[in-house]
Amino acid sequence: MAYATLSDLAQYLDVQEFDLDDDSERLLDFASTLIDKYTLGRIDSNNERHMKVAKMATCAQVEFWQATGDPMGVLETYSSLSLGSFSASRNNTSPLAPNMPLAPRAYQVLFMEGLLYRGVDIK
Questions:
Q1: Average pLDDT by consecutive 10-residue portion of the chain (123 residues)?
Q2: Please, where are the H alpha helices in the chain?
Q3: What's the pTM?
Q4: How many Å apart are CA 86 and CA 121, to the nearest integer?
Q5: pLDDT value at position 115?
Q6: What separation in angstroms does the CA of 57 have from each of 46, 68, 77?
Q7: Which of 2, 18, 93, 104 could bond to 32 as cystine, CB 3.0-4.6 Å?
Q8: Are 62 and 24 in contact (CB under 8 A)?
Q9: How far apart (Å, rounded) are the C-alpha atoms in residues 123 and 20?
């Protein structure tokens, strides 16, 4: 389930819904999955504040991907990449499996809500 709708994304980006990229809905789903990964599933769907923050973080993540043109994190894995007579150079500082970067704005809202805390749970 995506934390944000196309309407939410259009409002966040201050554009009309018909001006959104064709793959925006897919990116919203993908961004929501990434948000779940970073928060370790701590977003409580019954908590209105959590849902508001999740929606904002999801929209910020899609905005980030659209700005960087790299929604799959592929470019971070390579220091150079070509298509004509294919050539690729692996980035030596990148791990084998790319760690999908979280958008700075998404990180900020999730952090401020305490959803990125990795401390010990006490029951």
A1: 95 95 94 95 95 97 88 60 67 55 93 83 62
A2: 6-13, 24-39, 48-68, 104-112
A3: 0.76
A4: 49
A5: 94
A6: 17, 16, 24
A7: 2
A8: yes
A9: 44
Cα angle value 40/98/55 (rounded, 5°) = 40
Q: Which pair of structure tokens corresponds to residue 89?
A: 């150079």
Paired tokens of 37: 């990964």
- Residue in the structure block whose two tokens are 């999908």: 100
Question: How far apart (Å, rounded) are the C-alpha atoms in residues 24 and 12?
Answer: 13
Q: Which residue has the tokens 């929604």?
A: 71
Could you tell me if 30 and 11 are in contact, meaning their C-beta atoms sit under 8 angstroms apart?
no
Q: Which of 1, 23, 2, 21 is nearest to 13 (CA)?
A: 21
| Token reading at 73 | 């994190």
Q: How far apart are CA 73 and CA 86, in angstroms?
A: 19
